[in-house]
Amino acid sequence: MLDHPAIDIALATILFYIVLSLVASSVQEWIASMLGLRSKNLNAGIKRLIGDQYTQRVYRHPLIANLAKAGKLPSYIDPKTLSTVLLELIARDNASKSYVTCTADDVRGIVGKISDDHPLKEILDTWLTEGEDAANTLKDRLASWFDEGMSRMSGWYARRVKVIIFVIAAAVTIATNASSIHFVEELWRNDILRSQLAAQAVTLTEAAASTDEMPNVSQDLNDFPIGWYGLPEDWVAWLKTVLGWAITIAAISLGAPFWFDLLSKVARLRGTGARAGSNNRDPSSTS
User: Fold this and answer.
1) Exposed e or buried b for every residue in 115-134, given b needs 16+ CB within 10 A?
2) Which of 8, 59, 146, 188 is the most exposed place for a label (fewest CB within 10 A)?
3) pLDDT digits (tens, 9 = 90+) for 79-107
């Protein structure tokens, strides 16, 4: 077992980053919920796929409209449901009948009536088959296309979330003066605090090992040596503080899952015999 203050500092610092990352994620989720970012992202993505006119009509269809509260847009639509609704609307427009009752010839006729300048015309033409199962084949291929499109939409949303997380991380870091440099310096000076936080980090890894999900983190920001106790005295102190902020912001932006994974690896270096407030090594332990 490695028994060195640097290992405990690493464990405590990673725990610190996990807590800050979870705080930033919670704020981000609250903002996303309040502003309906997921549903707006989905709506914008569907518009790119099928055009604004059909998107509005798809969202008014009962199969879609009932997926969200009145006046709200759904944040997720199953690709098969979206395919079914869109083809139903197209069939009603071009054949005045339900798509469910359409034969293979009906489907080919429906697609043929779609305006040549509509973005769906060429796409549906590509997927039309000559067999008698043309209707079901077209619906399945359209659903697969929507599934691929939604994967891209998820990527757009993830990139947008990263920007929001970065802004939140900067706000939380500066508001709490969560400088990584000051944090590490304080842990190096305070043996008891360092050992306590390291022990809590090890306990967290043990909880994580017993479940496939991310365990609950009970630590509060007040548990850590951060906060405003006065402004830096000179430009050197300011430089160190700002650099510490930058490190913290970058760490938060990596996300809690990244730090959970790293925490388990560092905890294995330390061993399982967490010391509560003591720097003495148990002579019975083994490396």
Assistant:
1) eeeeebeebbeebbeeeeeb
2) 188
3) 999 999 999 999 988 878 888 888 888 88
